[in-house]
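(Structure overview)
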Amino acid sequence: MAVAARAFVRKGTGLSIFVRTRRAAGWTTSALAALLVLGCLLLPRHLWELRPTTFVRIPLEAIFGAALLLALPRKGRRVAAMLAGVGLGLLTLVKLLDMGFDAVLQRSFNPVLDWGLFADAVGFVRDTAGDAAAVGAVVAAVLLALGIPTVLALAMVRLVDLPAGHRTAATRTALVLGTAWMVCVMAGVQVAGAPVATVSAAELVHSRAHLVVATLRDEQAFAREASVDSYAAHTPPDRMLTALRGKDVIFAFVESYGRVAVEDPQISPRVDATLAEGTKRLRAAGFSSRSAFLTSSTTGADSWLAHSTFMSGLWINNQQRYRTVTASSDRLTLTGAFQRTGAWRDVGVLPGTTRAWPDGKFYHFDKLYDAKSLGYKGPAFSWSTMPDQYTLSAFERLEHGRKHRGPLMAEVVLTSSHNPWAPLPSMVGWDEVGDGSVYDAIHKVGRNPKQVWKNADQVRTEYARSIGYSLTSLLTYVEKYGDKNTVLVFLGDHQPNPTVTRHSSNRDVPIAIVAHDPAVMARISHWGWQNGLDPSPTAPVWRMDTFRSRFLTAYGSGSGPGLAAAPARPAH
């Protein structure tokens, strides 16, 4: 009998331990579920807000949700909890996307327009960290997209079952927290400058819904704006660009050439020296130049938005506007104005275009050279399919250097200064460029982007080197191959990645006009632009979409509509 009693005690003790362990595990799981839900409700939308004090707040959504769920019957409560968990999961994904978009593009994620940008994000990871990292990033993104809503749905169901045996305590807790929330609102209680009582989740839902509605409305309003073009309607071809007849006009975009390149203390010494040397050498070759700033419609990426803004005279700051304007060939672009006169051969040199580009018809090129048709046989330098010096050398061989040709209008896009800025090409003799095979050895000794991106200072240093290389390629090309009929307009498309700009909100890019003929420069003397290639901090600043009309007015008959006399925006 004693043996049986001892066995019962041992059995009872084991059962008691099992019960206590199970109960502790249950409470631990519930506590983790509560922390997860609370953390997702309080999760900020910006990386700089990720600090402990951000999570020391009372979200009204949690109080209101608890009260609503307590009022529902058990079956309906579980269904509502699961739906609320999925909704919170989707909201959390939006917050994470906002963090990423703010870090790279300095704006929030637009659920209507931005899905196409994920391919570019994968490409950036591949360039900076390799193929394995890119695949890992895609897998991680898919798992997060599926996992976060699922886990939060389970967490909400777990929490909603707790008040079943403690309904009175749960109701009292909700009332106490609701009262505390009201007191904090009325008293203006804050922690580290942020209010303790918050409705941030509800505000995010409201703002994103407003963004979606505004985006859809903007499509119609922008379509009406794009359809009205006084130049296209009222200026006949024989009065367009009369002051440039017989000239070779080159519009060159330098990738990521932003205001930071000529003003940041860590970057500008190298770039300023390149521009100063270029100004000096071009002046010796008989060229003069003027420079200023334009405010780009984008920053950090999306170069095509800036290109279309500059060429069309419309403010194109999202993909929807870009699709709207490029879907119609009626809008008069700068390239289209040259083509309409019949006095120029229009060519596009776009080494970053690696596949079919139906949007190209919007620009009315007589001939488009993409990555495949430029004849390059060397290695790609990260994102850039070929070095800028090769691009310009191919342009000289294929178009500019041809005998017995007429005047040219060319849009040339230089891509060597595209992130991740490693490895970088270097200058070779113009007679050594050939088919690009010479760059094999240069590529082999180039820096590894994985190493560069471990340190922000290294990134800025390599960015400065890339801008210096792109500008040197362009300016020495004009010095070597330019003549009395050469007119060059070169500018940046947008500011570089926020790692380089230190998250500045400034969107300005330098622009310069170079010409051999003094009469060409005299036409813009009233613009107030500064002499030389390097604009100072006090140089005029125009919105990028205003350039088209000012340029057409300055070099047309002078009687067309335009903004030549409009005041510039105050300098920074």
Notes: The radius of gyration is 30 Å. The first strand starts at residue 58 and ends at 59. Residues 2-213 form one domain.
